[in-house]
Amino acid sequence: MSLGDEHGARGEDGGYGGTGQTRTRLPDSDGDVYGGVRRGGRSSSRSLVTVVGVVVLLIAAIAFANRGGGDSGADDSGGDGGGTRAGTAPTAASGEQPEKSGTGGIPTGYAQDDQGAQSAAANYSVALGSADMFDTDRRHKIVDTVYAPDVAADRQSGLDQAYSSEKFLSNIGLGKDGSAPSGQTFVSRVIPVGTKVKSASSANASVQVWYTSLFGLSGDGSTNPVSESWYTTTYELKWVSGDWKVTDFQQKDGPVPVGRDQTASTADDMTKAVEEYGGFTYAR
């Protein structure tokens, strides 16, 4: 499933997080939100992904809606890379222009190299994990922007079926149209922590994105409070018409850091934070 494996591969790091070079940029507006959720049972989410080919954060959302027992042993699609570890400044900016343009609020126009592929994968994970995926028109724009044209149509069909499921929406506390109950705020955010190139060529790249996610409903009376989760997703990218586009992905749990002994915020504090702190539209 790794499209880049058949080309000249060049791994960069054997551990999680890869080169660790990170650059963040605040959005032009406060409207960006992203996604994720704590997992319980894995079997129901995995079968749904197999059937409808949904994108990465929907796996987590469905698992959240069907929380219960079971194993969480996801497939590990990561490679060993065979390279050296990051230097003494793992959070230094890459120094390269991350993108040259934007489409529907999603930065596009990445460089045709491994840095460009990492930037695209990190940025696309934010869009694919956002609450905008629960709105039909916005979801269609996101999928058309981040996926390669030859796979976008199939993805749209599967995603429309999944996101329109009344049972699924009800289980996560949303209405039939994907709206949150009165007085509550739906939170779905992805925050990339690091990226790693598994393999790359001028035509294909396989990039891992390690990220934390927030998912749930904030506000009084919420039965699905906002929770935090950690995942690593491997994106298969193809160079199409002057930009990197997604052709496939695989997700696994973790690495998960040890949680500190901190008291969870109140529903009011969480809602206020979500409304006042805009999400990142770009991170690498």
Structural class category: alpha+beta
Which geometry do the CA atoms define?
globular
Enumerate how many helices there are, as a single number. Answer: 7
- What's the number of structural domains? 1
CATH class annotation: Alpha Beta
Low-confidence stretches: 1-56, 66-95
Beginning-to-end CA distance, first to last residue: 24 Å
Query: Which sequence of SSEs, written as H and E, runs from N to C?
Result: EHHEEHHHHEEEEHE
Rg, Å, rounded: 18 Å
Describe this structure in words.
The chain is of the alpha+beta class and 284 residues long. The protein is 27% helix and 23% strand. It has helices at residues 43-52, 56-65, 114-128, 136-146, 149-163, 166-171, 267-276; strands at residues 24-25, 101-103, 106-108, 185-200, 204-218, 227-240, 243-253, 282-283. The strands form 3 sheets. A 4-stranded antiparallel sheet has the order 4-5-6-7. Strands 1-8 form a two-stranded antiparallel sheet. A two-stranded antiparallel ribbon has the order 2-3. Strand 4 (185-200) and strand 5 (204-218) form a beta hairpin.
Write the layout of secondary structure elements.
Elements (H helix, E strand, L loop, with lengths): L23 E2 L17 H10 L3 H10 L35 E3 L2 E3 L5 H15 L7 H11 L2 H15 L2 H6 L13 E16 L3 E15 L8 E14 L2 E11 L13 H10 L5 E2 L1
